Amino acid sequence: MPPAAPLDTDVAIETPEHIVFRHRVAGPARRLLAYLLDLVICYAVFSAIAMLVMVAAVGTGGFSEAAEGAAASGIGLLLVVLFAIQWMYFAVLEAWQGRTPGKRALGLRVVTATGRPIGFRAAALRNVMRAADALPLTYSGGLLSLAGLVSMATTTKFQRLGDLVAGTVVIMPERAGHTTPLVLFPAAQPYELAQLPDDVRLDADERQAIEMFLRRGPRLGRARQLELAAMIAPALAARFGLRNEDPARTLALLYDCAARAGRTDAPASSKVPGSWR
């Protein structure tokens, strides 16, 4: 009998440029800690608002109709705030940034099963399903989500019911492990500089993909470098109006120009560890 395959705790994410990133899937313990931190933040804010409402209600004085009306309005406000904490806090922040403050502190991010940022629909679905995740202890505040724990234990990517319905995964994105800045070598030639626009802007995904390619470049053969670079370089070259027969050099020039944007002191172009051609 062949040995059982190990539990897959990595998820492969492929960008539209066909560059694959691998991230660790977040387990239940880390996710629970992030959730607890978010609850502390939520209910600290709720408590502060409740105190202000109580002070305002006491300030009206007596048992007049005005005081009773202020108290009723205060209770209504607190119910709205409580609703926002329970249903909107997680959904809005995850749809906006892919993470809540608790997830950020624990190094977690929510993405789709294909590695894309989640939208509001997916964020709302995965959070509405918290009630189902908490079964049979629905009123445990999510702290004893037995159904969710069973779902995580039986899926390869630790997906709770909300993740399965919304098609999402919670990952731990790799932190940049490179402290040595990349340095262009040889330095950009005058004819290359003449082609470059004054302002080269790359979004975060493009910069990450190109940097990963450039750091791996020295370990790749020349043919493989050109093959990978040709998947990305033509579209970027067309965007910035570049004409360069070497797609790998095109990526290096664009990355160098984008990295130097807003800096007055560009790194010296000398061949040191971390440099690329």
General description of the model:
This protein has 277 residues and is an alpha+beta fold. The protein has 2 domains: 10-172, no CATH class; 190-258, no CATH class. The protein has 11 helices and 6 strands. It has helices spanning 28-60, 65-97, 101-105, 120-128, 130-133, 146-154, 161-166, 190-195, 204-216, 222-240, 247-259, and strands at 10-14, 20-25, 109-112, 168-172, 183-184, 275-276. The strands form 2 sheets. Strands 1-2-4-3 form a 4-stranded antiparallel β-sheet. Strands 5-6 form a two-stranded parallel sheet. A hairpin with a 5-residue loop joins strand 1 (10-14) and strand 2 (20-25). Helix 1 runs antiparallel to helix 2. It is elongated. The two termini are 50 Å apart. Mean pLDDT is 76; it is low at 1-8 and 262-277.
Give the helix/strand class. Answer: alpha+beta
Give the total of domains: 2
Biggest sheet layout: 4 strands, antiparallel
Helix content: 40-55%
- Taken in chain order, the helices and strands follow as EEHHHEHHHHEEHHHHE
Strand order of the largest sheet: 1-2-4-3
Question: What would the principal axes of the Cα set say about the shape?
Answer: elongated
Radius of gyration: 26 Å
Distance between the termini: 50 Å
Overall pLDDT metric: 76
> How many strands in all?
6
Q: Report the β-strand fraction as a percent range.
A: 5-15%
Tally of DSSP helical segments:
11
**pLDDT < 50 runs, ≥5 residues:** 1-8, 262-277
List keywords for this structure.
277 residues, alpha+beta, two-stranded parallel ribbon, 11 helices, 54% helix, 9% strand, disordered C terminus
